[in-house]
Q: What sequence folds into this?
């Protein structure tokens, strides 16, 4: 069973002649430990798909299941708990709270979830250390570089017992070195069993995923096939001559 | 890419013999581009003929015959490194021609044709990315080669994305209601 299941999801905004259909009958399944990228141009419905998967928005029709449980069957409080405990969000513009240090930003969701400040701080520091940010823990967001801010936001998204990571253009404004570092972190989380979905228009980012799903005008039009082994690629390139 | 200049670059580090040059060429390109030994010896003969390298033992024709770079060779290498590669010719890429052709073929969706190629390119990129995933095997020259391949493929995907968007906009502008100037439309209604 997939950890995240989107079944026949449609979403429209407005009514009558002004109605815009953002998603049309989209199916998406993401297993534990898998990284799926959703690629498409602006306006293809990528971000809507992510907010619906993360229970931040309701679909017009269709069902979202997280760990086998339909979101539509949950009470408001249960959904809020799932969002807080199971789902980590990474946004293009980081969404860090300016008045809190890097460590406080990472610990906040744990404290909101009832963990003691001391325990949350220990878990948060461990997450920052793992991402190579221990020495930046006491800095405020405006004292961090873009790459560091995004790493803090990833630490915040994966801290605790999160099982689903949802990232919208996670390396949007970063250079390719920082973008690669961000993808390595997401991949490391997947190796620990986290199911992850990134939406992006960037093929280099998407190429880190196990599977790439292509969205066009709100519909899934295609997806990549399981890749052959790297050895096959090297064999192929060994036929090439200068 | 010039094997000739790559060999001059390797000899600029010091004298070497043929087999050694082949091994260093291959490891210097992240083991991605093999070179056959015949090609190495043919290139060495030509470089020697042109005075860009010289043999330490002219009478020895065996595999241990060593070569060093000459002053003319060093100058040639420096010129090559500092001369931008020719990128001025107009693109006559097969993919570009396929997309341009797809626009004209009745019953064919150019967007579907673009998607077939986009998916293929992204699948290739996934394979290259997987190669650099394992940091334990990190090798600087190999990483540079993989990045070069990823950026090359990425540029083609970006062109496909841009073409897709441009064609979509062009199609919507060709709708009768929007292509006809507003005043002309009013005139039609009055008649």
A:
């Amino acid at each position: 069973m997939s950890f995240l299941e989107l079944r026949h999801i449609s979403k429209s905004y407005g009514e009558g002649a002004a109605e815009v259909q953002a998603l049309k009958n989209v199916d998406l399944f993401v297993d534990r430990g898998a990284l799926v990228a959703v690629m498409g141009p602006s306006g293809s419905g990528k971000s809507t798909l992510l907010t619906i998967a993360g229970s931040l928005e309701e679909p017009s029709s269709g069902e979202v299941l997280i760990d086998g449980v339909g979101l539509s069957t949950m009470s408001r409080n249960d959904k809020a708990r799932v969002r807080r405990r199971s789902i980590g969000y990474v946004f293009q513009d980081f969404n860090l709270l300016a008045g809190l240090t890097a460590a406080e930003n990472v610990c906040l969701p744990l404290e909101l979830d009832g963990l003691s400040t001391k325990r949350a701080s220990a878990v948060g520091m461990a997450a920052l250390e793992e991402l190579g940010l221990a020495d930046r823990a006491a800095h405020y967001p405006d004292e961090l570089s873009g790459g560091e801010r995004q790493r803090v936001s990833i630490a915040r998204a994966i801290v605790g017992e999160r099982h689903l990571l949802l990232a919208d253009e996670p390396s949007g404004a970063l250079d390719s070195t920082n973008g690669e570092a961000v993808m390595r972190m997401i991949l490391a989380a997947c190796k620990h069993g986290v199911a992850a979905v990134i939406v992006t228009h960037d093929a280099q980012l998407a190429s880190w995923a196990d599977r790439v799903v292509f969205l066009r005008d709100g519909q899934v039009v295609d997806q990549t096939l399981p890749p052959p082994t790297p050895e096959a690629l090297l064999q192929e390139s060994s036929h090439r001559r200068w | 890419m010039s094997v000739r200049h790559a060999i001059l670059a390797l000899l600029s580090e010091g004298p070497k013999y043929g087999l050694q040059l082949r091994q260093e060429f291959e490891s210097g390109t992240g083991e991605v581009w093999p070179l056959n030994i015949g090609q190495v010896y043919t290139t060495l003969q030509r470089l020697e003929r042109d005075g860009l390298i010289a043999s330490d033992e002219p009478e020895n024709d065996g595999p241990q015959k060593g070569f060093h770079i000459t002053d003319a060779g060093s100058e040639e290498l420096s010129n090559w490194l500092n001369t931008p590669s020719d990128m001025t010719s107009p693109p006559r890429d097969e993919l570009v021609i396929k997309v341009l052709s797809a626009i004209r073929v009745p019953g064919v969706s150019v967007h579907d044709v673009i998607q077939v190629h986009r998916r293929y390119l992204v699948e290739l990129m996934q394979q290259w990315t997987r190669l650099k995933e394992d940091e334990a095997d990190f090798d600087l020259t190999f990483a540079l080669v993989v990045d070069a391949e990823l950026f090359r493929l990425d540029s083609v995907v970006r062109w496909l994305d841009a073409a897709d968007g441009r064609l979509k906009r062009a199609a919507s502008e060709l709708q009768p209601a929007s292509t006809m100037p507003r005043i002309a439309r009013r005139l039609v209604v009055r008649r």
